[in-house]
Amino acid sequence: MAGGLAVVANEGEHYHGKLTRFVILACMMAAIGGVIFGYDIGISGGVTSMESFLKKFFHNVYIKMKEDNEVSNYCKFDNQLLTSFTSSLYVAGLFATFVASSVTREFGRKASILLGGANFLAGAALGGAASNIYMLIFGRVLLGVGVGFANQAVPLYLSEMAPSKYRGGINNSFQLSVGIGVLIANLINYGTEKVKRGWGWRVSLAMAAVPASILTLGALFLPETPNSLIQRTNDHEKVKRMLQRVRGTADVQAELDDLIIASEISKTIKHPFKNILQRKYRPQLVMSVAIPFFQQVTGINVIAFYAPILFRTIGLGESAALLSAVVTGAVGIATTAMSMLIVDKVGRRGLLIFGGIQMFVTQMIVGGLMGAKLGDHGGLSKGWAFVILVLICIYVAGFGLSWGPLGWLIPSEIFPLEIRSAGQSITVAVNFLFTFLVGQTFLAMLCHFKFGIFFLFGVWVAIMTAFVYLFLPETKNLPIEKMDRVWREHWFWKRIVGENNELIIKEEEA
């Protein structure tokens, strides 16, 4: 079967336990790591469209936007220093996530979350106080270190704390938190843009300290995951007590036994980044690269980073452009919340394929309309600008339902314990690398390709939807420490990892 097999654990293999209040509160606090990521995504796009910010730090862009009537609509914001302001965070995050991998493995998920919050807090303070471009960029670097640590540890934390039956929904709370952060940032930008003395952008940048403070203080009280505890200690009784607490039942022996086995394997691995290259981990390695790559080439950062700039490109005013970004942010939150509710019932593959089709269709229509209705000069009529906004909202809805949350969920649940931290670091690094590349090149691509940029991203969406259909197995409801079976039973991956497949299955059934 070309689409792969939907593998579900037998009823007797499900661990005992329930979704406890303890787990819900811990995961809600950890998910604030998504809020800081989303806040930065939303705030950077908003402030780069504010005239007072451009006038102070990017005067050439300001002059081009206000006074140069010869410049194409698509090229008014094409400035490499301006895109460096946005993308510098992701270069720092890319390198930070590999440091975070060692911290997460040796000191626990909690330690990385704490360091992420603290660095983001320092970056927010520096950005809000910036008096020159160097302070501004250095603040972005600190923000990047914070996001690198948080994004490396938080999805792992959520997947390891959650019962397998609810793992998809709980892990999707990370992307929901990202959406909430984006919406809060867009609302703040909409308000601060109206500050008459032109210092509203400082408030926007400095307010990042609020979620960063909550995360930093909250991380001090987070419990460590049972998976991390057993990876770092031989105290099985301590791990058992934590399992009993997070699962709300005394009957945790089956899960504990699987954790002990996974821990024994993990402790034989001294170089996880080297071991992840082994043939038996090939499917996970491919997914750790392919999924974050595809998530970025959907073109979502066109909306996430540059929504206000994009809306100004089609002729909306400064305030209207910021308000439109608020609308798209709200749509993203609503659909991500919907994904949380249905992902463990519908499954991962179905949502990714449905969302991919929805994004492909809307991007093709947006590209066609902008090509037909928006020239190099002037703007769209209010009616056509509204149609473009509605189509972009439908596109964002498709992403929020599928590739947004599942781009973080799937990599966090497919790795065995011995390479889990390394695998998540590769996922985050690839995500940041292509976020940087898209962020750094988008304004130039918009200038050169014009409306064709939407066709380019649409082609990538078609490719990634086909990839999911052919190569991604279903992972819903399967315990995280038994995830290796989905590769052994998949039509393609079993050719690579399927040696002694029958013997392994018989040993599991014994």
Automatic annotation (TrEMBL):
The keyword Transit peptide does not apply. PROSITE patterns: MFS (PS50850), SUGAR_TRANSPORT_1 (PS00216), SUGAR_TRANSPORT_2 (PS00217). The chain crosses the membrane at residues 22-43, 81-100, 112-131, 137-158, 170-188, 200-222, 285-309, 321-343, 350-372, 384-410, 422-445, 451-472. CDD domains: MFS_STP. GO terms for cellular component: membrane. It is found in: Membrane. SUPFAM superfamilies: MFS general substrate transporter (SSF103473). Signal peptide: none annotated. NCBIfam families: SP. Belongs to the major facilitator superfamily. Sugar transporter (TC 2.A.1.1) family. This is Major facilitator superfamily (MFS) profile domain-containing protein. It comes from Anisodus tanguticus.
